[in-house]
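tool_call: predict_structure(chain=1)
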Amino acid sequence: MISITEWQKIGVGITGFGAFFILLGALLYFDSVLLAFGNLLFLTGLSLIIGLRKTFSFFFQRHKLKGTSFFLGGVIVVLLRWPLLGMFLETYGFFSLFRGFFPVAFGFLGNAFNIPFLSELPQLFRRLQGTSSMV
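tool_result:
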């Protein structure tokens, strides 16, 4: 069994509030203050959950630098009150950073809830990654 520290529990709550504020900011016509507050809470909660060293090592791996620059650049653009452009940059960076996690998540959801389409998505992702590496 994995033991969860008090700081990790607080980090989960802060990350949840960050996601809530990002969603609320997007629903309220890309309110820049709510989006900026949500971004700061999300990044703070993530660093509390996995630790500062692991957070930096995740974001600044050589093959993830493109996604990191788009994600953190989007956060900065949102803080400079250009919310629509910032959220587009963040979204691209998010998908680029977590590209390897999506097949695992879809496969788990497909097996957990017995959804055939979701359980076949990881195989589709592997086939697409195999063909894109040949180019």
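agent: The chain is about 80% helix and 0% strand. Proceeding to next step.
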